[in-house]
């Protein structure tokens, strides 16, 4: 019982416990129409601006700070860019808030800031507001970074999980689990030899052209972070009130990730990425959209992995067709198998 | 030497060491015209919206989480509202990022979120985007909160430290040091009996009517947080290339704050507030602006505390006229006397 009176690591994992925390504590207090949408970005309308502005925030507590393929700075910039991109918004500017533990080597901080600067250049966005706080040794963990971002939503975008329809197709922009495995191995120092590195990248050049070309046929997009594909598909099913069937054999996973997963008992559908998204599109444009993804460097492993269906009496569910032809139910993540990967 | 290779608490104090950190590390990497303005809010212009949008971020690491007059949640909402207000902007929406240490009692989190909800209601703003992360016990300190905010700048606002002129008057909206002393006493448990409590409040209803009424005659505004009045006046002097003389006798300080300062050797001009601002106004409207401040509940102790002057060859400096008629130079804060008060 004591455990349930206190926050645990599972509450930060992005799965069902996080949803419970948000639902029981944040939602009743902070409720308003925009927060209630629970999207990756809030969409603002106002008489002071045309169209819609997207606004989003994310705190990054990844450990270790540096890992193959990235670091907390690159992650913080790209993570917030991606929350805007999946809303169909072009990033306008970012803020950066640093909470530094006393004793952090300046060289580490410099590496992180340099990496943020490079990620901003690559993502064509600027950090226009920043804040720095320092806490005593033992009261933090090296460095935490918050980034918030403002973006301008493409007027053609109609991205909304409530718009998914039976018959829509589910696209995945690339291989599962690269980021989660990369951070896990960097942290645990298990001595496993692997070429897996984080897929941390800005998804704007991959996703925004889809919105521009296919407009309302792009029903929904979400980047695959905490909780992994399984959790995000369950959220889409619940919010869109549709079931879906995923073909397990169609899921792209790098051989290095597969072998680490088999060794350690992880399931790639619960692992985090930081440069991949799931895209629900109308059946009419699905093939064209997939080809468009595959032509881009960030989408060369993109695949059509399943489709949306009318739910039966049991309600909206996520099913997985296994390679031997069976069907199983896919649950959202409950507690995290890998905490602090972002 | 070792010390200078690592971040220390002084780097987070908001004084000269913070400026050095920003100047040596963040500015060279992240430089862009908007960040370079180094204002409390970044001002954005774009073809997608009329006029100007203000955007700001702040992380809060105050300890303890609860103190007389407020808590980390109220502080986080009002701190970001105030960064927008001093830019002449009406807050449109806020984001909230929570970094929770494993083991934080749910009741504490609930109190903080409730307090944020109340502060939002009082400040007429909504939290539209939120994020929650959890770190292991011993890797945080209960709770850190980041808030970022977007606001719409009043078209009449021309708030810019480069616009201050010799002859302009310096107004202070109320008593110095209430917040810093309140948090310090709550933390140290020295057993000092006092009625001092934090002045944490949203300054929008006090400051925005000034901008609406006096427009460009309001040269500059800044809320008095980390580093206190002395540090902020030095920043205005440096950015506006003007000297100033402050009349020490005119500075409003509550008797309770004065006696704690005398007991413990603190100087109120270096202490933080969270519901006070310094306002530089043209000489022509100074008396009217002061009366307008004094008529508001949050400005009833407002005072005219000094004026701007043409600097002599020594450059822009802040001078203090002492009660016995002497003059002394006021330096910005170097290291903090009271870390983690916001």
How does the SSE layout of this entry go?
The structure is a homodimer of 342-residue chains.
Chain A: H1 16-30, H2 33-36, E1 42-46, E2 49-60, E3 66-67, E4 70-71, H3 72-85, E5 89-101, H4 106-123, E6 126-135, E7 143-153, E8 169-172, H5 178-188, H6 204-214, E9 218-223, H7 228-240, E10 243-247, H8 255-264, E11 277-281, H9 286-295, E12 303-309, E13 318-321, E14 327-329
Parallel strand pairs in A: 5-6, 10-13
Antiparallel strand pairs in A: 1-2, 2-7, 3-4, 5-7, 8-11, 8-12, 9-11, 10-12, 13-14
Which key phrases capture this entry?
five-stranded mixed beta sheet, 342 residues, homodimer, alpha+beta, 9 helices
Task: Describe what this molecule looks like in 3D.
2 copies of one chain form a homodimer. Chain A is of the alpha+beta class and 342 residues long. Chain A contains 9 helices and 14 strands. Chain A has helices at residues 16-30, 33-36, 72-85, 106-123, 178-188, 204-214, 228-240, 255-264, 286-295, and strands at residues 42-46, 49-60, 66-67, 70-71, 89-101, 126-135, 143-153, 169-172, 218-223, 243-247, 277-281, 303-309, 318-321, 327-329. In chain A, the strands form 3 sheets. In chain A, strands 9-11-8-12-10-13-14 form a 7-stranded mixed beta sheet. In chain A, strands 1-2-7-5-6 form a 5-stranded mixed beta sheet, covered by helices on one side. Chain A has a two-stranded antiparallel sheet with strand order 3-4. In chain A, a hairpin with a 2-residue loop joins strand 1 and strand 2. The longest helix of chain A has 18 residues, at 106-123. The model of chain A has no long low-confidence stretch (mean pLDDT 92). The interface between A and B is large, with 80 and 80 residues.
């Amino acid at each position: 019982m004591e455990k349930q009176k206190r926050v645990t690591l599972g509450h930060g994992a992005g799965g069902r416990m996080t949803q419970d925390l948000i639902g029981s504590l944040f939602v009743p207090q902070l409720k308003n129409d925009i927060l209630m949408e629970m999207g990756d970005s809030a969409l603002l309308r106002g008489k002071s601006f045309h169209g819609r502005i997207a606004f989003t925030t994310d705190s990054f507590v990844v450990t270790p700070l540096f890992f193959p393929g990235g670091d907390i700075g690159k992650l913080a910039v790209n993570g917030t860019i991606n929350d805007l991109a999946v809303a169909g918004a072009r990033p306008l500017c970012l803020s950066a808030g640093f909470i530094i533990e006393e004793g952090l080597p300046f060289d580490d901080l410099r590496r992180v800031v340099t990496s943020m600067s490079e990620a901003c250049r690559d993502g064509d966005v600027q950090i226009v507001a920043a804040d720095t706080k320092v806490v005593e040794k033992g009261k933090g963990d090296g460095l935490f970074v918050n980034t918030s971002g403002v973006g301008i939503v493409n007027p053609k975008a109609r991205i909304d999980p409530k718009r998914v329809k039976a018959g829509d197709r589910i696209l995945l922009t690339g291989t599962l689990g690269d980021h989660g495995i990369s951070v896990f191995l960097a942290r645990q120092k298990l001595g496993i030899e692997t070429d897996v590195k984080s897929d941390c990248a800005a998804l704007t050049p991959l996703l925004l052209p889809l919105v521009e070309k296919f407009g309302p046929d792009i029903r929904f997009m979400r980047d695959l972070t905490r909780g992994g594909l399984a959790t995000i598909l369950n959220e889409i099913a619940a919010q869109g009130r549709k079931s879906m069937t995923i073909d397990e054999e169609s899921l792209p996973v790098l051989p290095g990730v597969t072998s680490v997963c088999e060794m350690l008992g992880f399931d790639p559908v619960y692992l985090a990425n930081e440069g991949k998204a799931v895209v629900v599109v109308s059946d009419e444009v699905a093939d064209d959209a997939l080809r468009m993804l595959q032509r881009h460097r960030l989408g060369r492993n993109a695949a059509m992995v399943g489709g949306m269906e009318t739910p039966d009496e049991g309600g909206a569910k996520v099913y997985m067709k296994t390679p031997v032809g069976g069907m199983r139910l896919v649950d959202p993540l409950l507690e995290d198998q890998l905490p602090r990967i972002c």
